[in-house]
Amino acid sequence: MRESLTRVLEGIWRILISLKLAVLVIASLALTLSVATVLESLHDSKTAQYYVYRAAWFYGLLALLGLNILAVALSRLPWKRKHTPFLMAHAGILMILTGSWITYRDGLDGSLQVSEGEMNSAVELDQHVLVMKVNEDVQTVPFEWMPAPVAEKFAGRDFPEFGIRVDQIIPDAEPRVRFVEMPASSGEKSAPAVQVKIIGAPMGGSPEFWLWAGDAGWSSQKLGPARFLIRQAGRQDLEAGAFPSGEARFDFVSSKDGSLSFESVSVRGEKKTGKIDLSKLKTGSAPLILEPGWKMPIRIQLKAYMANGANRTDYIPVKVKPQGMGTAIPQPAIRISLMENPESKLWLGLGDRADFTGQDGVRRLIGYYPKRVVLPFGIQLDRFELKHNPGTMDPAAYSSFVRVVDQINKAGEAVEAPIHHITMNEPLESKGYTFYQASYIPEVPRPVTTILSVNHDPGRWLKYWGSILLILGSISLYLVKVVQRKRKVEVTS
Questions:
Q1: Could you check whether the bond before residue 445 is cis, i.e. omega within 30 degrees of 0?
Q2: Which of 182-196, 224-238, 454-468 is most confident?
Q3: Which of 152-166, 249-263, 325-339, 347-361 has the lowest mean pLDDT?
């Protein structure tokens, strides 16, 4: 038995120190990295990471390379002076692999978003989680991103302890918002909603959009010098004067009895009011056109009205395109439902959450978020600066003026810290973390929110020293070969 085990171990050892294994592993790594490069150029970095860089087999291949290098070095025992270049090169490779493993285990690579005058320390990683809560039971579950070919074959995933099912995934999605009429007794948040089409818009074309009184972001839409708005009768916060003067305004006013009227004010202050005949919408015999009474040649077509409208967000797949300055990156979306009620399907984009109440009356909360890591200090944005190409509005460069805040005074206020300037070519290094200027959130009249890429690489110096050793060892091996060849020539001559 002992002899058999010895023979097996000796066979494994011969394989580990063989040149054939080294050639096979190195050739496999070269082919793998070539495939990963092609995947990244054809798709994106997330796809390459899924199939290669974050795959278990890839780490197994790197581990096999490390075992081969270590075994070959140990096979030269007892080491002699002439082995020094050889050992330097092999030690360099092992240090690089070890540093890479430390970075994978303890490193950080994510993004931090912060607005002017605010401070943030939460770094979002390129990893996703589901946060589920039932009563006081809260659980965070990793939910891995997957490319389209894998997502199309996704069979669903159940979470029985929370009664939640995820049945569909879109890896790169774009939201599509629609509105549905809800019964007043549904208990779901609803408010008046109108779908309008602007004919003769000052910006050209015939823009079409929804207005919804249930959310301030949906209640108004500005087109050139005109603003269109929906409000419920008696809402003082949206009465005239709540918005800047000098613009024409057209208000849809919904009453409690379900009727709809309008109030129009021109740039010069001329007013016009009227009741809207909703029967034309029901018959559909002719378009329902409203005249605001402005000198601008604008007419308003009312296409739909819901006294109790609720918004629904669906998602459609999109193809990832090269991202320019300030452009949005498509995010994944998942469709969830209650396991007891498969019809209760609801889409969640990354960063969204849903609220379900089951037949048992138990409330369930579920959120789909990027994984977050909190830094031991905060980043405060003093000012974001955007420069344009001369004569155009095309962005040429952007940068952030930030403070690294790691002290709080007795009053709970941040202690004043020096300002650092982060540009596209000059990152900030602080406390073992490196901050790069990555992007920004486009806003009007100017962007005030920056997006910084955050990197923490604890294995960096081990990889640096390993690279130096590998280079020195390789040069030394070459020089030894040259000297040996020269001596051989001298002896033969």
A1: yes
A2: 454-468
A3: 325-339
pLDDT band at 245 (very low <50, low <70, confident <90, very high): low
Please answer whether residues 362 and 97 qualify as being in contact, where contact means their C-beta atoms are separated by less than 8 angstroms: no
Q: State whether residue 488 is helix, strand or coil.
A: helix
Phi, psi of 203 (to 5 degrees): -90, 5
Tell me the torsion sign for CA atoms 208, 238, 307, 343. Answer: positive
* Beta bridge mates, 357: 363
- 385-417 as b/e: b if 16+ CB within 10 A: ebeeeeeeeebeebbbbbbbbeeeeeeeeeeee
Give pLDDT tens digits for 360-383: 888 899 999 999 999 999 999 999
Cα separation, 30 vs 314, in Å, equals: 42
Q: Is the pLDDT score of 76 beyond 60?
A: yes
The DSSP line for 440-460 is EE--SSS--EEEEEEEE-TTH
pLDDT at 242: 55
Name which of 86, 71, 77, 60 is nearest 11 in CA terms: 71
Query: Are 167 and 335 a contacting pair, CB within 8 Å?
Result: yes
Q: Are 420 and 426 in contact (CB under 8 A)?
A: no
Q: Which two tokens stand for residue 336?
A: 């969830």
Supply the pLDDT for residue 52: 96
Sign of the alpha-carbon torsion through 210, 211, 217, 223:
positive
Tokens representing 148 are: 């389209």
| Residue 326 DSSP one-character state | T
Cis link prior to 244 (omega < 30° from 0)?
A: no
pLDDT of residue 409: 52
Arithmetic mean of pLDDT, 118-124: 95
Phi, psi of 276 (to 5 degrees): -95, 130
Strand order across the beta sheet in which 271-275 lies: 220-223, 226-232, 248-254, 260-265, 271-275
Q: Length of the chain in residues, anyone?
A: 493
Judge whether 433 and 456 are in contact, CB under 8 Å.
yes
What lies within 8 Å, CB to CB, of 215 at 6+ separation is 191, 311
